[in-house]
Specification:
Elements lengths: L24 H20 L7 E7 L4 E6 L10 H13 L9 E6 L2 E2 L28 E3 L15 E5 L5 E3 L4 E3 L10 H4 L1 H14 L3 E3 L11 E3 L9 E5 L6 E7 L17 E7 L8 E8 L3 E7 L11 E7 L2 E7 L9 E8 L2 E9 L8 E4 L2 E3 L15 E3 L11 E3 L20 H7 L4 H4 L7 H17 L17 E8 L11 E5 L16 H20 L6 E6 L3 H4 L5 E8 L3 H7 L2 H23 L11 E9 L2 E7 L11
Parallel strand pairs: 2-3, 6-9, 6-24, 24-27, 25-26
Antiparallel strand pairs: 1-2, 3-4, 5-17, 7-8, 10-21, 11-14, 12-13, 13-20, 14-19, 15-18, 15-21, 16-17, 16-19, 22-23, 25-27, 28-29
Amino acid sequence: MKRNSFLFIPFLFFIQFSFAQEIDKSNLNELLSASLSAIYHDTMLRPGRVTVDSIALNDRHQSIELHTNLTLSYLPMREKLVHLIYDSIRYYLPPQQKRYHISVFSDQQEISHLIPNRFRSKHKDKNRLIRHKVQTPLVTNISAPAGSFGKGLQNNHIALWQSHGWYYEQKLGRWEWQRARIFQTVEDLYTQSYVLPFLVPMLENAGANVLLPRERDYNTLELIIDNEGSSGGSAYSETNGRERWQESDSAGFAHPNKVYTDGENPFRMGSARQIKSVSRGTVSVATWRADIPEKGNYGVYVSYLTVKQSSDDAHYTVYHAGGKTDLLVNQQMGGGTWIFLGYFDFEEGRSHLITLTNKSRRSGKIVTADAVKIGGGMGNIARMPHPAGFESENTKRSDSLIRRETLISEISYTPEISGYPRYTEGARYWMQWAGVPDSIYNRTEGKNDYTDDYASRGVWVNWLAGGSPVLPKAEGLNIPLDLAFAFHTDAGTFRGDTIVGTLGIYMTHHNNEQFENGRSRWASRDLTELIMEEIVSDIRRSFEPDWTRRHLWNRSYAEARIPNVPTMLLELLSHQNFADMRYGLDPSFRFTVSRSIYKGMLRFLATQYNRPYVVQPLPVKDFSLLFSDETEVELRWQPTTDASEPTAI
């Protein structure tokens, strides 16, 4: 479908207009509003009314300052578009005022300020850029080929989540989905069909460390292996070399209960082990032997403590069906929670191990060892209505959390677990199982899990980043997050084949438009715009030329406002609208959208760090095996051309 970009609607040029010495402002307002609305319509391919709210004319300084409503700020600003807007305004000014300096503002910003740094040829906003560099990330796979991620996302840390989940509704005294069942799915599960099988692996394959506030492993089986006790025939053991393992002074993980209720933190119920590192000589080893009841592909998590003088290269080895994988974990960050190492194939039985040695580049550092978790498991957080009967309202993500109502009198309830796999549950319950302080996930003090679930995610981001250069004055896990991303689908329906489309949300009007480390919150708009651009362009190219690009909203949604890192809240499509879900249920559509998000993040971080990038190639095709002799196999395949990505080779 052919489109004309950045053209005036022709009739505007033929409006009769008197270029007198003085001009009637109301008439000028109408003309400029009509012209800007035409530009909006031509750019967005959808109706939208841009209104000029005020015009300040200063003949002494020969300047004109024009303020519009927010609609103009919804546009994806580029230098060409900004020039067009200024030219359209200058066109309608009297001859003597065409030479004046013109400034156009929308959302309190001069519109060239709305251009992402990546699309600026000059005047890049340095306040939006990252001011630190990470040398040692949280987890490094040293079994991967050297240089695998050199132009990808190496040393980057990303927090993201897949919208809602199965939760306990205090008003009804039962577990239920947060969103309605429709089109063979529910948003609580639907967004996972992008995030878990596609988006997270793409980011990790590019070298990023990805952290989620929800369980990522679909397996209902879960093994805990710990010095305090293990599942089934699994066992923890130690061997001592030059240095000896000993108990840490700080609390660690234990799993004494089948279920956990309010205020119970398994990461404060047990102990952990620690040892000094050695750079040479006989090493000491902690071993977690897994008793796998069923062959499968399982996620492996480790836990440890972050203490003074923690090692930044704790050496873990996972022995699995495909051999072994060596990983270095930076224990100077991430202590006291589950840290994901990856998915591994395990055979049934007790042949598989996870080991940790005290071998390090530097002697005298502290290596700590705590529990290992294999598999996703079933939910084990038990909930009930608040005994006092007071509950917050189930507010929207953009509402405040301060309203209260009395719904029930005091009743005696028994706490109940969800009965569902942990990966289906909302973030609030994973956080408790993962050792997150209850001040983060229990903000309504047990009165409303719906509110706690969405309100906790942004606070969780800040807890991860606390103590790092991102959030240096706060307490937390010292993980230097680069960005946060909330993946949602929206509501709303249209008749016929009209598509609701894609909306991007960010928030700058908070804390003097700065993150806590002084960086500009307008970096969030850059992130949002780059991801939106990739999503809409790829969908229009591969699936639907008329896919609707909705607004870039600067709105105070909790998930966009609270994180102290650049953050986007994506509403990809409407899960209620048939025209959207015709595509949304197609696995190839989900793959393409996930890849678009990955590419947007890749380009954003390449700009932030001023580095080149390479997009991962598409999956190969025509793969085959040829037995060249009795002991050799030849692998053959054909590359898949990506015409839109010259670097993806």
